Amino acid sequence: MRGHNGAHGVTRPTCFGSPRPPSLTHYPSAKHKAPGKIRAPGTNDAARARLLSGTWRFVCGRAQTLANRTGHLFNAPVLQQQTLNRPATYSGVGLHSGNRVTMTFLPAPANTGIRFRRLDLEGKPEIEARVENVVENNRSTTLAKGNTRVHTVEHVLATFAGYGIDNAIVELDANEPPIADGSSREYCKLVQAAGIIAQDERRQPYRVTAPIELEMGDTVMTMFPDEVFKITCTSSDKQGRFTQLYSVELSPKTWEQELAHARTFCFFEEIEYLITNGLIKGGSLENAVVIRDDAVLTNEPLRYADEFVRHKMLDIVGDLALLGRPVHGHLIAVKPSHSANCELVRRIAAQMRKPLLAAQSFAPPAAPGLPPPGATGAQEAASTEGGMDTLRLMQVLPHRYPFLMVDRVIKIEGNHIVAAKSVTVNEPYFQGHFPGQPIMPGVLQLEAIAQVAGIVMLKRAENAGQLAYFMSADKVRWRKPVQPGDVLIIEVELTKMRGNIGKAKGVCKVQGEIVSEAEVTFMLGQG
Prior knowledge:
Layout: E1 32-34, E2 37-39, H1 46-52, H2 56-70, E3 80-84, E4 88-93, E5 100-107, E6 114-118, E7 126-128, E8 134-136, E9 142-145, E10 148-150, H3 154-163, E11 168-172, H4 185-194, E12 196-202, E13 206-207, E14 212-216, E15 219-224, E16 229-235, E17 244-249, H5 252-259, E18 265-267, H6 271-276, E19 289-292, E20 295-297, H7 307-320, E21 327-334, H8 338-361, H9 377-384, H10 390-396, E22 408-413, E23 416-422, H11 442-458, E24 466-478, E25 487-498, E26 501-510, E27 513-526
Parallel strand pairs: 6-11, 13-21, 16-21, 18-19
Antiparallel strand pairs: 1-2, 2-20, 3-12, 4-5, 5-11, 6-7, 8-9, 9-10, 14-15, 15-21, 16-17, 19-20, 22-23, 23-25, 24-27, 25-26, 26-27
Helix pairs in contact: 3-7, 7-8, 8-10
C-alpha cells in the first residue's frame, strides 16, 4: 500500500513490511483543510489537465508508457493451481446489509474454483463465483443460485485473483462478506495467515486472442491481447472531478502494494439515494471515503494520491475473476462499472467458446461417460457434478451456433435442470430485431426452454443417440424484455414421460425475475 499519510508524500512501509514504491502521480502539496478533510490533490498538474479532457485517444496513447513504468515486477508465471494452506477467519459488518457476519477462508481441492457457502441457511448451500450466477451488479456484484444470494463479493474475489489463488471456499453466516475498511487489506491479512500452497493440477489461463470492445453508457472498455494481465484505467464523476489514471501489470506483489488497500468511495450527493434504496446500512467513514465538492471526507488521509481509480481497478480484478480462470490481456477502461465489468467477462467467455464450438462441429462424439477430448480438469469436474460445459452440451444436442440457445448446464437433479444463456450484443438476431433497442425474441426464449427440456431427457442412458423433436407449446407467457448483458437462467422440470412423448414446464429468469414461461411437449426419435 501507499503510506497512511500518502496525501502528504510520506513514504511508509506497507502493513506487510515492504516499502511502497514512488507514486506514478505524486501530489506532495495536498494539505488538510480540517480534521477528516483533504483538499483535492494536484488540481494544477499538467498531466491532470490532460486527463480532464477525458479523451479515449489520450488514455490509449498513455497506456503502454504507464504499463512499462509499473509492470514487470516479480511477475514469474504461476504454472500450478493454488489454494490456501489452512483456514482463516474474520468478523465484521456487511456494507450494504449492515449485518454482523463471520467469514472463513477454507482450502479447496483443485478445479473447485471459488465458492461461497452460506452457513446460516439450511443445507449450507454453495454458489460458484461465475458470471452465470451474477444477478445484480448496480452498486456491487451479487451472486445467486436458487433462493440463495451473496452480495458484494468483488473485494473477496479480487483478493484471491490478486494472489493467484484458484480454489477456495468462503464460508459466511450472513448474506454479505464483512466490508472491513472498504478495501481488501483485511482479506490480504487472512490470506497471509492461511498461507498459499501449490496443487498438482496445472493452471490454464485464457489469453485473449483478439481485441474485445465494450461501450455501456459512459463506460468504454477494450481488452487487447497480451502475455500477462494488465489494467490501464481512468475514472471520474460526471462533472469530471477527481479524474485519475493508473496502470499496472497484476502480480501478487503489485496487487498487495498498489491495489489492495484502495478503499471504496461514493459522492456525497449519492448518499440519500443509497439510503433510500436500502443500501450502505453498514457504511461509515470507517469503511468508505466520501467525496463532497473538492474535499474528501475520510477518517484518515488518502492511502494513495489516486486511490479512487485504484479502487475501480480493484473492482475490475474481482469482477473479471468471475470468468472462472485467469485471463491474460491488457484492459484499457474508462469509467468502469460493475455492470460493464460483468458484461466484459461475458464477452471474454464468448470469445473463449468460439474455437471450442468450431472444433466440436467437426469432431466425433466422445465415448459415453468420458469427458470430451481436450477437456480441462475444471470441465471434467463439472461433468461429474451434474453440470455440463459447452463441449459436453454439444454431445447431447444437435444444435450449433447460431441456434444453440444454451451456453452451460448448471445442474441436473432428477427431472429438474438449470441452464444458462449469456445474451450478448453480438447475437446475430439483434441485427434485425430492433437494432436501435435490441431485445431477445420471445420465440428464442421458448426455443431455449425446449432445448433444455431435451437435455434432461437425452442425458438418460436409455435415450442415448436419439433426438428430441419440439412438438408444441402451451401457456406461453412473455413478461419482461431480455436485453444484451442479461444472463438468461433457464429452469425446466420434466412433468410427464410416456413412451417417446414427454412434457415439461420451463421458466426463463433474469436476475431472479421470471421473464418468460411455457409448457412444452416433445417427442424422442432416432437421429
